[in-house]
Amino acid sequence: MPDHKHPIPQEAFDWYDEYAHGLIDRREFLGRLTSLTAVGVSMSVLGSALMPNYAQAEQVSFNDEAIIASYATFASPDGHGEGRGYLVKPRDLAGQTASVLVIHENRGLNPYIKDVARRLAKAGFMAFAPDALHPLGGYPGNDDKGREMQRSMDRAKIEQDFIAAAKFTKAVEGSNGKLGAVGFCFGGYIVNMLAAVIPEQLDAGVPFYGTPAAEELQSNVKGPLMIQLAELDQRVNASWPGYEATLKDNHVDYVMHMYEGANHGFHNDSTARYDEAAAELAWSRTVAFFKSRLIEAQ
Fold first, then answer.
1. Class of the CATH domain delimited by 54-295
2. Which residues contact 296 (CB under 8 A, 6 or more apart)?
3. Which single residue of 3, 123, 164, 277 has CA 20 to 30 Å from 129?
């Protein structure tokens, strides 16, 4: 049933997560939502709550005078040959600063992720947000289509593209040579994967509600990591106990924050899953973590 925090039943958020990650198809998803109309929630309310409205997601304008935004390509010989992403720098950069790779969800480089990159640049970092869909023409402007496109691609090549993107980001002009990575959902998984496959090159990682790397790779992780999880995210949280045990066994430098009452996707301010208090706290922790590990630690 609806509660004071969410105007729609929790089941709707859970079903959207299943749909968004390919566990159920669109027909079943819509069929389940229809069943909720019996408790007085209209399909229009459900649809507007669950589907993104990217007009709400812009916290930093692309015209903000404090940043310089452009696009850059990078070589990815073990992936799709070439990658492309959104590069945002502080305009008045005195000397060098740390670089942060920003990794999108399972639907390509949407406006929300671009805004996250701009937020990082406003905070004083070089930020680079690749688009996994570049080989297919880039993010199509629609999340459902973006998910279909990403699902059709070779997962191993996508991972190689992000490894190449991480190396590009670390060496981008103006960088102090320190690399951070922050990712959301699929992007959270990629941060965990990078921590396992290039542990010597990733200086700080912040996976938001992302599953860990393959079990056979997890013992390679060295950290530091700041792991952000949502209390109501049963799918991702099921992977945490085993991952945490490995991190502890290997004395990895990590911290985990669990956000009470928050859903998977709580940082994304374009849908009703957004939890402003949790998102702002998680983001302030993320920025402070990157500053301490990538800039002040020099």
1. alpha beta
2. none
3. 277
